[in-house]
Amino acid sequence: MKTEELISLLKEDAPVRQRLPQSLRRFLALGALASLGLLLLTVGLRPDLAGKIATPRVLFKILTMLFLATLACRIVLSAGQPGVDLRRRLKLLPLPALLLVAAVVLEGTMTPAEEWRSRWLGLHAAFCLFFIPVLAGAPLSALLLTLRQGAPDDPGLAGAAAGLAAGSVAAALYAWHCPDDSPFFVASWYMLAILLVTAAGFGIGRRLLRW
Amino acid sequence: MEGDARAYEAFLTDLTPYLRAAARRRSVAFGAPPGDAEDMVQEVLLAVHLKRGTWDPERPLGPWLSAILRNKLIDSLRRRGHRVTVAIEDVMDLLAAPETADETNRLDAEQLVARLGEPQRDIVRSISLNGASVRETAARLNMSEGAVRVALHRALKALSGFYRSGE
Asked: Which structural domain, as residue segments, surrounds residue A144?
């Protein structure tokens, strides 16, 4: 086939069906809604939410996770575009990390050392580690499948960005259920759960997102 | 890139000499047979086409294009490099002329089209080789225009997949 003949083929298929960032936004929103539905239908919100929402630890946990989720979602929305360097979009990520470190230090100065272990382990560390990845399932699959239409320069990095976004959205949702409020708990188990989902996104992305 | 077929054709036609020059440069630099350059051009054009939804009209086209070009050229050279090595060993065994090995190793779009199923193959040949329009093709095959367009789009995706798997 001559190249001109190929071009005449491509011309007949000219209309752009969907721009990638818009698709990503739509499917990320759908995935997050599915996770919210899953949370409400299974474990639900914490029963004492109304009374506890205004306490500093609960407020900090929810707001920090929402902040991280917002940053991570903004990063993944620019994934999959050739020539857009994702690494340069990561520079705000240390902010929520710093907030967490500051909260951990503050918690350490405000609570007696003999309470640290029980605050760190909380009541449901294992369930947290299990359920955040479960909640991340829907947004992660939605993002990865949408990113297949993309053309990431670095498929592993794009997959990791999808994992980070899905994991932190899941964590931000789980925070409305979770009865463990110490920054020790959040900085360990929440972060470990998000890290697991990010690693899964990296591993899957490296295979699935090649083009 | 906004769905105007004529402007899109002009854009792709203007792009081709630039892609061809880049493909030739890389072929020479990496010692691939020059005949492969045109196949690479076609592979890159297909990628540009299938991934055009990833271009943000508010960003410059240059970096986007060169990122696609880089990915595809490296990909195809790596693949071809491997294939050429195998071919030469075969040639030594058979004491055959290297040129014939080059021929059989070309990822010619024509051979890839032959691997499409019907009606995709018929539609692709009708539009590319005979210069028929989608409407004429649809009328001849008793299909709706929409169905022909969908089949064409799937065929292009399949072609790109054939290139990538390098078979």
From this structure: 21-208
Contact call for residues A132 and A69 (beta carbons, < 8 A): no
**Cross-chain Cβ contact A19/B9 below 8 Å:** no
The answer to the question of residue A2 being in a domain is no
Contact at 8 Å (CB) between B36 and B27?
Answer: yes
pLDDT of residue B166: 67
The answer to whether the CB atoms of A11 and B38 lie below 8 A apart is no
CB < 8 Å to B4, chain A: 14
Could you give the C-alpha distances from B10 to A4, A11, A13, B46, B135, in angstroms and in order?
Answer: 11, 9, 14, 15, 21
Other Cβ atoms within 10 Å of A119 Cβ, number: 17
Residue type, B61: L
Q: How far away is chain A from the Cα of B141, in angstroms, using its nearest Cα?
A: 17
In angstroms, the CA A101 to CA A64 distance is 12
Tell me whether residues B164 and A211 touch, CB distance under 8 A: yes
Q: Which residues of A touch B51 (CB under 8 A)?
A: 82, 149-151, 211
Task: Give chain A's domain count.
Answer: 1
Q: What is the mean pLDDT of residues A131-152?
A: 96
Q: What is the mean pLDDT of residues B72-99?
A: 56
d(CA A140, CA A171): 13
B164 interaction partners in chain A (CB closer than 8 Å): 210-211
- Closest residue on chain B to A3 (Cα): B42
Q: Give the span between the Cα atoms of B57 and B40, in whole angstroms.
A: 26
How far apart are alpha carbons A9 and A91 in whole angstroms? Answer: 43
* Domains, in order of start, for chain B: 1-105 (1.10.1740), 108-167 (1.10.10.10)
Rounded to two decimals, the ipTM of the complex is: 0.80
Any domain includes A141: yes
Query: What is the model's pLDDT at position B98?
Result: 40
Indicate whether A1 belongs to any domain: no
**Residues contacting A86, CB < 8 A, separation 6+:** A75, A78, A79, A152, A153, A154, A157, A158, A161
What is residue A88's DSSP assignment?
A: G
Cβ distance A171 to A190 under 8 Å? yes
CB contact (8 A) between residue A150 and residue B108? no
Q: Is the pLDDT of residue A175 over 60?
A: yes
